[in-house]
Amino acid sequence: MQGCYVPAAKCEMSVVDRIFTRLGANDNIGDGESTFFVEMSETSAILKHSTADSLILIDELGRGTATYDGTAIAYAVSTALAEKRSRTVFSTHYHTLVDTIEHLPSVQLGHMVRIFPIY
Fold first, then answer.
1. Beta-carbon neighbour count of residue 53 at 10 Å?
2. pLDDT category, 26, cuts 50, 70, 90?
């Protein structure tokens, strides 16, 4: 048995084989790797190693490049993950992306709204 003790009387959760994240903006200038390079390398690893039983969190993919190119990258990755049927939370600021993937049967769209006022 692997894992850690959870002090709970009951727990229901779905099992995932791996959790992948592509969040934030990181570079590795010491090795000559730009933010965009690191983002694409991490995304490539997600596409290569994820399964239908994976949980994937991706935030603002393609933001480090031109809008047209970023939208194309986000579209290609989101449709690949939809075909794989991985459980994915994919946040984006590319509004046209929403229009192109909303018809996919495995995609459920959501919209974040502010509940509390910002003072």
1. 13
2. confident
CA–CA dist 22, 14 (Å, integer):
21
Q: Which CATH architecture has domain 19-101?
A: 3-Layer(aba) Sandwich (3.40)
pTM flag (> 0.85): no
pLDDT confidence of residue 41: 92
Cα separation, 119 vs 102, in Å, equals 34
Task: Return mean pLDDT, the chain.
Answer: 85
Q: Where are the domains of the chain?
A: 19-101
Spatial separation of the C-alpha atoms in residues 22 and 47, rounded to whole Å: 11
